[in-house]
Prior knowledge:
Distance between the termini of chain B: 62 Å
Number of helices of chain A: 3
Radius of gyration of chain B: 20 Å
Shape of chain A: flat
Structural class of chain B: mainly alpha
Largest sheet of chain A: none
Shape of chain B: globular
Helix content of chain B: over 70%
Order of helices and strands of chain B: HHHHHHHHHHHHHHHHHH
Order of helices and strands of chain A: HHH
Helix content of chain A: over 70%
Strand content of chain A: under 5%
Oligomer: heterodimer
Number of strands of chain A: 0
Number of strands of chain B: 0
Distance between the termini of chain A: 35 Å
Largest interface: A-B, 23 and 35 residues
Amino acid sequence: LKWQWLEDVATMDSKDSLPGRLHERWADLDRGWRAAALGLVAVLFHVPV
Amino acid sequence: MGAVGRVRTTLPDGLPGVAFLCLLAGSAVLAGRFLPLDALVLAVAVGVLVGNTVGTPAWAQAGVASHKLFLETGIVLLGAQLSLGEVAAGGPRVVGLVVATVLVAVAVVELLGRRVFALRRRVTALLAAGTSICGVSAVVAVAGAVDADAEDIATVTATVLLFDAVTLVTFPAVGAALGLGAREFGVWAGLSMFSTGPVTAAGFAFDPVAGQWATLTKLTRNALVGVVAVAYSLAFVSREATSVRAVWTRFPKFLVGFAVVSAVASAGLLSASAQASLDSLSTALFAVAFVGLGLDVRVDRMRETGATPVLVVAVALTTVAALAYLAVTTLL
């Protein structure tokens, strides 16, 4: 199972796996939302908890 | 495979191109340490050189096409440098002067660019952003908002950087010749000059107090970049879309991220070191994106624009500097 998951991450082409589905959703997302999400993740890493 | 009407790049397909962009951006940053040129200018130059000589290799094209994602993520991170607290610290008079200057600068550039010199609408919008707000950052932010061409961004960025170099030398000399006080000079430079670095440098070259006022005024001006980007975005989108839903569909969503990051910074949740770190990350993303922009630039198409942008910015800068001088000497 572990190796299959890694293979899915590497190839991103399995629509039945979690990384495959995540990748599908990510690729379908508007570029502006993707940029906003990436920027916010970078900022969250800099907010002291 | 993909959504209807959209070209999708899968992560494995895009990686070689992204690595190619990073390699060229890294070489530009490295060259910037030895040459008296800004790393972002060199990034565009490297991209233009490669794009117009050997061209983008076929294996890198999928990844290179994603350079706008880097550009927009860099703009989102620019929000971390804006703080509404800094705006308030300038006091209502400085805030009023900044808002008035930005409006005048946008109006002058729009009038000159579109009515007098018949420049294209997107080029004029980029020139207005660079002249009224904060140089390259504002050009990049508005370029994302109006979906400008690579040639337009490269032309306007080069124009703004040319004036950064000129004003850095001339403003302190003109300020001394006009007999301006430290506070007056700082606010004048902060209102009139373009990029934050040269404004700060010219201010401190004049006087340490002038440096502080110049920085404060310029940061207040920078805070309006989001407002100008959103205004231009809505102006461009609403011409082509009729319903609110259509406007929202075409609205650049990364500006939402920019607003959220600005709110986080304004709430004081980011330390000075965190802001510096995000600034470096933003610059690195811009370097990668600018190489991609450079690769898309076709020099023969840039020649069509000619020297007109330089003339527009020269007239706008002179007008804004003269009005800002009158305002500073009478109102402060």
